[in-house]
Amino acid sequence: MSSKPVEQSIRKKLTEHLEVSHLEVINESYMHNVPKGAETHFKVVVVSDKFDGVPLIKRHRMVNEILKDEIQNGVHALSIEAKTTSQWNNSDKTIDPSPNCRGGFGK
Amino acid sequence: MNAFTKSRELRKLPALLSKWYSAKAAPEIEQLVKASKVVVFMKGVPEQPQCGFSNAVVQILRMHGVKYDAHNVLQDEDLRQGIKDFSNWPTIPQVFINGEFIGGCDIMLQMHQSGDLIEELEKAGIKSALLEKEKEKSEKDSGSEK
């Protein structure tokens, strides 16, 4: 059994459904008030040509839908960057960390 | 159905019912969403957001000088579930402009960076404070060239 089941499942689903040309799954749980090794807060960078001509909000909806089970079962926060391959190649390819927690978790 | 499975089924009932009845109904939410040109569902209040993502949205709107209605979902569990169902969006914060769902923190941040937010606000008849500042700056710049 893997020690990162959620991260791996996110990776697998996004890879399969979106034919990603680049994918980063970043576990940001350590930034929050959760036990060590928790898998509650994630940021995903999804680069896929399936986003071509798709508005931003719809790209996010696609990702949310694919990760529906994860979001319903334990993933508390999901930050999404969804880009086409050319958008990604033309970007500076840096990923800003999500904003710091302010203590609302668990309430 | 034997007694065991029956009692198990019964035990599930409250959870099932609460799933149906605990979320605020769509007409109620629609009223909230349409009560103001910009409406934000967030964790905490604008003066004291209780989540980094909600705070980011508050800061963006502040920069644009936008007045808005804010609803604290931590105060109201029905609203917290209701708004997610209403917009079919799994996370908080959620921003509405002119009654239309715009997105959460990531989308607001990207629209802010791309300039699309200024346009979106303009469509709703709101002049972004950033736009005013830019204008002032460019007028000053062109003035100094003369």
Q: What count of structural domains of chain A?
A: 1
CATH topology of chain B: Glutaredoxin
- Biggest interface and residues each: A-B, 22 and 24 residues
SSE order of chain B, as H and E? HHEEEHEHEEHHH
The number of domains of chain B: 1
Sheet having the most strands of chain B: 4 strands, mixed
Describe the secondary-structure layout.
The complex is a heterodimer of chains A (107) and B (146).
Chain A: H1 5-18, E1 22-27, E2 41-47, H2 56-66, H3 68-72, E3 77-83, H4 85-90
Parallel strand pairs in A: 2-3
Antiparallel strand pairs in A: 1-2
Chain B: H1 3-21, H2 26-34, E1 38-42, E2 44-45, E3 48-49, H3 52-63, E4 69-72, H4 77-87, E5 94-97, E6 100-103, H5 105-114, H6 116-123, H7 129-145
Parallel strand pairs in B: 1-4
Antiparallel strand pairs in B: 1-5, 2-3, 5-6
Helix pairs in contact in B: 3-5
Structure report:
The complex is a heterodimer of chains A (107) and B (146). By secondary structure, chain A is an alpha+beta fold. Chain A contains four helices and three strands. A three-stranded mixed beta sheet of chain A has the order 1-2-3. The longest helix of chain A has 14 residues, at 5-18. Chain A starts with a helix and ends in a 17-residue tail after the last helix. The model of chain A has no long low-confidence stretch (mean pLDDT 91). Chain B is an alpha+beta fold. Chain B has a single domain (23-145), classed as 3-Layer(aba) Sandwich (Glutaredoxin), CATH 3.40.30.10. Chain B has helices spanning 3-21, 26-34, 52-63, 77-87, 105-114, 116-123, 129-145, and strands spanning 38-42, 44-45, 48-49, 69-72, 94-97, 100-103. Chain B is elongated, with a radius of gyration of 21 Å. Chain B starts with a helix and ends with a helix. The relative contact order of chain B is 0.14. The A-B interface holds A 56-57, 60-61, 64, 68, 71-72, 77-81, 98-105, 107 and B 43-44, 49-56, 74, 88-91, 101-107, 110-111.
